[in-house]
Amino acid sequence: MSPTGVALHRNLEDMPDDYNARLQASQQLEAATVSLIRTADKLRRKAEKAAGKKGAPQLDTKWTTTPTPGEAESELTLAERLVPPSKRPTYRLRKPAWLPFGLPFVGKKVDTIAWCREQIAERETSLRMKRDWLEADISTPGTGEAETYPPLNSAFVLFRQQIGAHLAYRAAAHHAPYVMHERFIETAPEDVIWENLGVNPCVQGCVSPV
Predict the structure, then answer these.
(1) Distance CA 99, CA 167 (A)
(2) 110 φ, ψ (degrees, to nearest 5)
(3) DSSP codes of every residue in 36-63
(4) Do 106 and 26 meet the contact criterion of CB atoms below 8 Å apart?
(5) What residues have CB less than 8 Å from 5, skipping those under 6 apart?
(6) Contact at 8 Å (CB) between 183 and 193?
């Protein structure tokens, strides 16, 4: 029944917020990238159709030319180079913190792909730093006074087998350290809410508890 490991539950403060913000930005970046690719494909098809009407099968060189390494545009994807800024996905930031309610068209409009990349980089840097702090707190457990993420009044206990967890659940802490004894639960008639069992409270003294 001996546990394989004990992990203290700690107050992580805003670390989960950074993780959720990074996850949300990643999902927004994926959706915006797909939208950008669809827009680029639509523009290319439109250019091919216009070229076919003029009798010139050749497309504009911007659709076929790949920038050479070293150029500024070589760091961009083909869709990013071909879609004009006015047709790129945009995102409107949330309302200001001082505003108690939301209003339409309130908030700065930013480029979704660029904004999401900045958010992911910032949150990733913040998470790495905070995880290093958390690892330092775990390696040197103390009372929490000088720790960034102090422990709370609970812990996660791991067991080798499922039966070990059940046996530990049915054990109660003894007044002496490292001593356990089996827990006995006794229920008196006055401890039972008879209305929940569909029993008339007037006869509760005649009914034995289960």
Answers:
(1) 53
(2) -125, 165
(3) HHHHHHHHHHHHHHHHHHTT--PPPHHH
(4) no
(5) 157, 158
(6) no
